[in-house]
Amino acid sequence: MKKIIKSGLELERVELSPEEAEKKLEEMNEPYKVELVKEHSDRGEHITFYKQGEFIDLCAGPHLMSVAPIKAIELTACTGAYWRGDANNAQLCRVYGVAFPKASMLEEHLKKLEEAKLRDHNKLGRELEYFTTVDYVGQGLPILLPKGARVVQLLQRWVEDVEQSKGCLLTKTPLLAKRDLYKISGHWDHYLDGMFVLGDPHDEEKECFALRPMTCPFQYQVYLNKQRSYRDLPMRLTETSTLFRNEASGEMHGLIRVRQFTISEGHYILRPDQLEQEFKGCLELAKYFLDTVGLLENCTFRFSQWDPENKNNKYEGTKEQWEESQAVMKTILDDLDVDYEIGIDEAAFYGPKLDIQYKNVFGKEDTIVTIQIDMLLAERFGMYYIDKDGQKKLPYIIHRTSLGCFERTLAYMIERFAGVMPLWLAPEQIRLLPIKEGNVEYAQGIADRLTSLGMRVTVDSRDENIGPKIKAARLERIPYILVIGDNEMNSSTVTVRSRKRGEIPNMSVDEFVALVKNEVDTKEK
């Protein structure tokens, strides 16, 4: 690479017809690239190559015009990857590298990478015992350990309580259903490859079930339980839903992309005149949740639209229906002054979406929350309501998550806070460290008082020096460590070691209780 850079060769963009490109790549013995070119051949588009000296290769670009400005390079990783993320295909080698115009910029980048590795939830979450994975359980099926399970439980209870205060109705629906349900909803035609199917999906004579990849067709049955009137709307149905999606093996990563996960899902069934106000409420709720857990400031917004040129039969509905729904959503987003980017071919098969995006410590972006407008599926299920004029009308539906996938949120929080959870979510909030046996009873009394207030507290009463006890608590990222010795016992105080506030000696127990209670009640980050 250094030799190539020294040569100062310029890069030349070359366009070939699909036929010429296919022939060229066959001569180069590039079967995978031939496959890609064939997929584009029916679009009538030219195929781009980039040429550098004698070297030429398929690439969409863009590139630097010359390699001369490059002054620093580093190969950062070499991994295996299945072709197109499918374990049934050949495994290829993927090489990662970076280049910069200055050595100092490379050094700064590599330093950031090392810092990112220290925050990586896939490493830190295991070390702190939030979760684990086991090969014979299966890839993409993480096991939440007591700490991780506690954080997720706290998040779920909080989300459900807040949603209830916003007029939401909680449901609990089955984890699987017959294929008949998914055929009505359209998921069988558009999402079958992403579902876990129990039985032969192609044998129409035998009963066939599938684990649910989403909750919408189940919650519609709540609405359909009886005839609805315009007075019943909006109906805000929510559920803490466990879902199953057959992700490709190459796509899975820690808690961020898994095959079984739990989300704060909701479906708002409403009249057309209620759409903008309800959409606004969904967005405000999502922003409140994300802000409270410390993630909102690093989120971006994507207006996910359909691609009328998609050749894979991805979308339901007509061009006119899609143009209408996207125009309505654009008006709403502009009215709400949402700063968004447009993502073509990122829509759901039934409607456009506002996706709230978040990047992990390595810069990989995923959707954390989604709010979708659906003008199509109500008709499939016959979800009519009786309007003021006595006529049957079809409602609109908002599909939304409020905090998204709890596993993914936990992963991002581990990375955001480097394992030091905000006090209100910390699986263990306070640890008392008696210096000697004679201090244990006093420490236990304080712990009992804190526990009675709902705090998660432990007492480290091991026959061990105080130094190792403090070190162990710090390594476990305990927010508050209380050191209890004779001085504290005689003065009815505690010595506080806080990861946020430093050391506070001789604090009265009442003052400490007030401090942590306020921090929990205000959900301080």
Q: Strand order, main sheet: write it out.
A: 8-13-14-21-18-17-15-16
Q: Could you tell me the mean pLDDT?
A: 93
Largest sheet: 8 strands, mixed
Q: Tell me the structural class.
A: alpha+beta
The strand count comes to: 26
Rg from Cα: 28 Å
Q: pLDDT under 50 segments (min length 5)?
A: none
Note the total helix count: 17
Percentage of residues assigned to helices:
25-40%
- CA-to-CA gap between the ends? 46 Å
Q: What characteristic shape results from the CA principal axes? A: globular
Proportion in β-strands: 25-35%
Structure characterization notes:
The protein has 525 residues and is α+β, with helices and mostly antiparallel strands. The strands form seven sheets. An eight-stranded mixed β-sheet has the order 8-13-14-21-18-17-15-16, with helices on both faces. Strands 23-22-24-25-26 form a five-stranded mixed β-sheet, sandwiched between helices. Strand 4 (72-82) and strand 5 (91-100) form a beta hairpin. The longest helix is centred in the first third of the chain and has 20 residues, at 146-165. The protein is globular and about 90 Å long.
Secondary structure layout plus pairing:
Elements: H1 2-7, E1 12-16, H2 18-27, H3 31-40, E2 47-52, E3 55-58, E4 72-82, E5 91-100, H4 103-119, H5 121-127, E6 131-132, E7 143-144, H6 146-165, E8 169-170, E9 176-178, H7 179-185, H8 187-190, E10 197-198, E11 209-211, H9 216-223, E12 228-229, E13 235-244, E14 260-270, H10 275-292, E15 300-305, H11 319-335, E16 340-344, E17 353-359, E18 365-374, H12 377-380, E19 385-386, E20 392-393, E21 396-405, H13 406-416, E22 430-434, H14 440-452, E23 457-459, H15 466-475, E24 480-484, H16 486-491, E25 493-498, E26 502-508, H17 509-521
Parallel strand pairs: 8-13, 12-19, 15-16, 22-23, 22-24
Antiparallel strand pairs: 1-2, 2-3, 4-5, 6-7, 9-11, 10-11, 13-14, 14-21, 15-17, 17-18, 18-21, 19-20, 24-25, 25-26
Helix pairs in contact: 2-3, 5-13
